[in-house]
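Hi support team,

I submitted a single chain yesterday and got back a structure, but I'm not sure I'm reading the token output correctly. Could someone confirm the output below corresponds to the sequence I sent? I've pasted both exactly as they appear in my results page.

Thanks,
R.
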Amino acid sequence: MEEIKRADLKKISDVLYEIPKGHRADMRVPAQIFMNEAMMEDVVGDKSLWQLANVATLPGIKKAAFAMPDIHQGYGFPIGGVAAMDIHDGGVISPGGIGYDINCGVRLLASTMTVEELAPYLPDLATRLFNKIPSGVGKGGKLKFKAGELDSILKKGAKRMLELGYGLPEDIEYCEERGCMDVADPELISPRAKKRGADQLGTLGSGNHFLEVQGIEEIYDEEAAQAFGLHKGLVTVMIHCGSRGLGHQTCTDYVRIMMNKLPEWGYDLPDRELIYAPYLSQEGQDYFKAMAAAANYAWANRHMIGHWVREAWQEIVGGSSQLRMVYDVSHNLGKVEKHRIEGKEYELVLHRKGATRAFGPGRREVPEKYRHVGQPVLIPGTMGTSSYILTGTEESMEVAFGSSCHGAGRRMSRSQAKKTVRGSELRKQLEERGIIIRSDSDPGLAEEAPLAYKDVDNVVNIVDEAGLAKKVARVRPLAVIKGG
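Hi R., thanks for writing in. Yes, this is the structure output for that exact sequence:
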């Protein structure tokens, strides 16, 4: 592995650096990193920049290999990586460019109550949410589906859950892809993956996944906030989770399939984790359709959690108070999209790994109600730090194919975090600040301590300054529900 040093980076602007195409003979395009000087020591020397340079070698890649400001080491691709491949010019698809937790994403619900109005109910609400929505490693849920029933969910995603009586029609309208990728083929999901997913719908999982009750503390863009139905002091609920064991197994299955083809294909890979298949090959198409089915499972999962959040809300708060869907964004997803490069339109397979779509005004993919301001972009922070709501811009379509970061980004491994902070002490500190914590795992809390992550305020300011997305609102945590 060739370490990327600070001297290898060319400064383009205060928030953009580049590894030039000429840095390595095998790079087809430059590698561009959205970051600033304050973030430099968290990134330089990390394996993630070497991984990004590797991405720039992939067949069919257009424009550049991009890294969002939450960049950190991943499998094959860095987390926070964005790459677009021309499907009609030998473009490839790489499971490492989408990730193991296929369609991990964030769903935002908005209440009709202010922080002050909810305050008397908040402790009981946090407890009810924790008890009602299973969380933790391998934790199953209240629903268990047989093979045929699960196949229907894998094919139709959140729409199937609505047919079964869960959630509201607007949950579909304000969800990326309307909660379903039509190309999904459940037959391409292995029996083992289906077994792992049979009882995990409506569950949070562990790691950095969470459910958070929040209060809006700052509005930056009144027009966009009004379009999203947000105002200062309003209570929101953020859900962060993905496709659980089913998605992880699906990625594992197709990495293995592609690895077994490596001798036949004869690829000269800079890193075996960067294994790929031509998008239009049988293996490429099979993976894409399986990935879509796992993505549909993830949308169904967040849909179910949203349904149970509403039930818990009514059980504790009652009355006429409601929770309205604002938006559901995906990260860890591959999409076929049309984009213009130097005036010419291309059909590209977009890899966004730990990166969020950030489409600007006018794109047909944006719900009609939001189309004049752009797509909502949801960037969660960490326990004890703010999260942000942004919107895509016209500029964002030109900068990095309408993409933004998906969070603060790790700067410390989970094992390092556990050695550095005690979960029980972190719980005490957060509760002294008025943040209610519901988690049955102190080690799990330590892994996700704020110090293990980059400064989310700095990360989001880079996003805003670089034109990737525009700040709309900042929210602060009131109650955090996590698994261990």
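A quick pointer for reading it: The radius of gyration is 21 Å. Let us know if anything else looks off.

Best,
Support desk
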